[in-house]
Specification:
This protein is of the alpha/beta class. The chain has 9 helices and 7 strands; from the N terminus they run βαααααβαββαβαβαβ. Helix 2 packs antiparallel against helix 3.
Length: 206
């Protein structure tokens, strides 16, 4: 068995989930600024997560679900996942974003499992709080190591694909480290660099 782990926002999906939501509420520029700083490693990922979600306090749960179920997926994402599974990979999505987006995407893109964060809703509105498995800068690395131990998969048989600073921790445990249209901080630690927004380009390196 081999393991392929993909980031979601700006990797499997074209853009950042929170920015699509923020656009609906007229706060996209502020959301984008915080997101960019986090992905470049300029501010702590957990702190940025709390700041960004707090900006959406009071947003209707129904509206957020509607947006998350209609996100634009990256060109070649479904085809790449399908081919990797044919090659014996278990394909998993690790997202610092939210299961409101990654669960619907799983049905479309076909990855085997997803680990992400969870919006906290109360009385049909977002409280500005959250929980989940991917809240810290090292969360993806820790979860990747757990999966490797669980399925007895070594580093050389592991592929990690991402675009931002919070993907660095999983690069520590992956033999193939793909920076997809990524920030400079991630490219520095990658051995596969793809600057074309088509995930099928990844298959040329495997």
């Amino acid at each position: 068995m081999k393991l392929a782990v993909f980031d979601f926002d700006s990797t499997l999906m074209q853009g950042e989930t929170l920015e699509f939501i923020a656009k609906e509420f007229g706060i996209e520029p502020l959301m984008k600024k915080i997101t960019t700083e986090a992905m470049e490693g300029k501010i702590d990922f957990f702190e940025s997560l709390l700041k960004r979600v707090s900006l959406l306090r009071g947003a209707k749960e129904s509206k957020i679900k509607e947006i998350c179920e209609n996100l634009p997926y990256t060109k070649g994402a479904k085809e790449t996942i399908t081919e990797l599974k044919k090659q014996g990979y278990k394909v998993v999505c690790f997202s610092g974003g939210y299961e409101t987006a990654t669960i619907p995407a799983q049905k479309v893109l076909g990855y085997d499992a997803q680990f992400s964060n969870i919006f906290h809703f109360k009385n049909g509105e977002l409280t500005g709080m959250l929980g989940g498995e991917m809240m810290f800068s090292d969360s993806k690395g820790k979860m990747l190591k757990r999966l490797q131990n669980l399925f007895n998969i070594n580093k050389e048989d592991t592929l990690a694909v991402g675009d931002g600073a919070n993907d660095l921790s999983m690069f520590n445990f992956a033999g193939n480290r793909a920076a997809f249209c990524a920030k400079p901080i991630l490219k520095e630690h990658a051995n596969i660099i793809i600057d074309i927004k088509d995930l099928t380009e990844l298959l040329n390196y495997l």
